[in-house]
Every structure is written in structure tokens, then in C-alpha cells.
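Data availability (excerpt). The following record was deposited with the supplementary files.
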Amino acid sequence: MLTKRIIPCLDIKDGRTVKGVNFVDLRDAGDPVELAEIYANEGADELVFLDITATEQRRKTLAELVMHVAEKVNIPFTVGGGISSIEDVEILLNSGADKVSINSSAVKNPQLINELAAKFGSQCIVVAIDAKKIKGEWIVHLVGGKVPTEIKLFDWAKEVEERGAGEILFTSMNHDGTKNGFANEALAHLSSLINIPIIASGGAGNIQHFSDTFIIGKADAALAASVFHFKEIEIKTLKNELSKNGIAVRL
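Predicted structure:
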């Protein structure tokens, strides 16, 4: 039985970790390298770093951050934000990242997924999907959730898998930062459609929410930010509780 993974997410803006609600109202949450080290020591299974202000000028800064993180942590980590070419991915993987996450660039150029999977292997290509439920339909959004598309979440997830992505990171914008629980209905439906692992993101507020997303949402991993950054949930406590509930985790 595969263990379920707990993944702290660090949104990076100008070299600092930040956290918002529904993708806005950002506040400082600390130094990303220090936080990464703390989470690795506390038992996180993986880490995700998303540069939410990624631009060409900042690519070098992100590569430097990746090198610092790689020196300090011994668990896999994923880096995303503004990645749009084979060259971008090469720089980040060579700097020490285990996986990269692509989002807007994959929607704008779906062939990029095929190219990256062919060059680097599916195992290190994560496609992040930000979606919002509008009039009963889950619609994919771009640019950190600011720009709606015509694309439906479930259609896109199937295409992403077919094109060679190794994993999907699904963030429900309706749930992000609300601490009211994950989008378990959508997650369970996603799980029935695709065979690659799904990381649930958006809505973690308590331990029960994690339990629910693994049992009801059928998620393979759960990602959260503020509950970890602001010490509302300790990773060790979370994993112990999940284990007591019969959910397989790495203790």
C-alpha cells in the first residue's frame, strides 16, 4: 500500500515565503530555506516551492534558492512558477530540484508537457491546475488564478496525463486559504478518471481535513501552507493522527 504524502507548500515572492487567502492578501511567512529545513526535520514527505512572481529576471534567483534548499534538505522537492521551456527545467533540476511544476505554460502550449516528459522523464514533471467551480463547472484558471479559460478541469487533467505528466497538483481556488477543507468531491472524480498521483491543494484547516481528503477525496498527497507556516498543525502530530485513523503514512 502506497503511503499518503504530506507536502508543505512555500509560495515565494521576492525571496520570502508568503501566504494569502483565495490567492490574494499576502503576508510574510518567513525565510524559505529555514522553513524547508524545519519541515524536512519534522517529517514532511516532500516540499513544493512556487515562485508566484516568477519572471525572466528572477529565474537566476530561483535557481540560487533551489541550490540553498538542496544543501539543507534530504527530501524531494518540486519547484514551479514561470517555467516555460526545456532550458528553465534543466537549470532547476541541475540546481538540485527533484521535480518541476508547470501551469500556465502547459495550458498555452500543451506540447511542452510531451517535450519535458520525453527529455526529463514523467517522474519529474508535475502539472499544476488551478480551477474554480463556476455555475457547476470546474474551470481552469491561469496566472495565479487571475485569468479564467474555457478549459474544463476534468478534460484538461485527462489530457495532461496522456501527454506524459507524472503527477497533478490540483488547487481548488474556491477552497484556497479558507481552511474549510479540500475539494473532495472534485478530487474523487479526478481520481476515478486518471491513473497518475493527485496532490490535493486548497482548504486545509485541521487534521480531519487531511483525513477526509485521503479517504473521501482519494488524494495521493495533501499540500498545505498556512496551517504549517503559522504552526497551527504540527506535521508529526498530523501524521500520528492519520496513522491512528488507518491511513498509511511514513512515520
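Summary of structural features: The mean pLDDT is 92.
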